[in-house]
Write a structure and sequence with these properties.
The chain contains ten helices and no strands. By secondary structure, the chain is mostly helical. The radius of gyration is 26 Å and the shape is globular. It starts with 25 loop residues before the first helix and ends in a 9-residue tail after the last helix.
């Protein structure tokens, strides 16, 4: 009797390389960000849970975590999103057509509108509250004010290189510009003090701030442009 033919075990097909994960739904991400912006402004950081945000956005809590990982990251992204919405990157494009003064006016008006908005005043009050920890303040600073300061400093550096300004410390000059635009109006609003329409006239105030800044940093022997 013939011996049975020995069979070699069949080789397993090579494992498929793991493909990219399921793409995240950008519509849901946007809804979560909008919900976070509304709730953090209305209730503060500690008063909002990921469950609240999920319910407001109409998604599951798992979806919120899938997009943002944790509450701190979501807060940071919400602050950054609000700043970009009101102070878009296009404002700081240094090679844009048009006079320097006009571009500074655009930056000044957008910044003034941002810092005097109910949303910004509410978040800034949260940051000033004693119960707000240092980590949260740092996240807020990096997501909002730091981005603006860095973008403005780079804009001033480029304009100086073109001979339109005479600045040696761009970060300091940018901070001075933003402080001029804030003015006394912002301090009054942070304290909840009523102001007359004349005192909140953004057009006059921002124009005066821009002209002061341009006089201070005009190239020697040149008027502002």
């Amino acid at each position: 009797m013939n011996s049975p033919t020995s069979r070699k075990p069949s080789a397993k097909p090579p494992a498929k390389a793991a493909g990219p994960g399921r793409p995240k739904d950008l519509g849901k991400r946007a809804a979560i960000l909008e919900a976070a912006k509304v709730l953090f402004i209305e209730q503060g950081y500690s008063g909002v849970s990921m469950d609240n945000i999920a319910a407001q956005a109409g998604v599951s809590k798992l979806t919120v975590y899938s997009h943002f990982g944790d509450k701190e990251t979501l807060f940071s992204q919400a602050v950054q999103s609000k700043c970009i919405e009101m102070l878009p990157d296009a404002l700081f494009v240094a090679d844009a057509d048009g006079p320097l003064r006009d571009q500074l006016l655009g930056i000044g008006h957008a910044f003034f509108e941002l810092i005097t908005s109910d949303a910004a005043l509410s978040i800034q009050r949260v940051m000033m509250a004693p119960e707000t920890d240092a980590r949260l303040r740092e996240l807020f600073w990096q997501a909002g004010p730091l981005r603006t300061c860095e973008a403005l400093a780079e804009f001033l550096r480029s304009r100086t290189a073109r001979g339109e300004l005479e600045i040696s410390d761009f970060a300091q000059a940018g901070q001075q510009f933003l402080t001029l635009v804030k003015g006394e109006v912002h301090m009054h609003m942070m304290c909840g003090m009523p102001l007359s329409p004349a005192e909140t006239d953004a057009t006059t105030h921002v124009a005066a701030s821009v002209d002061f800044f341009l006089r201070a940093y005009a190239p020697r022997g040149a008027g502002h442009r």
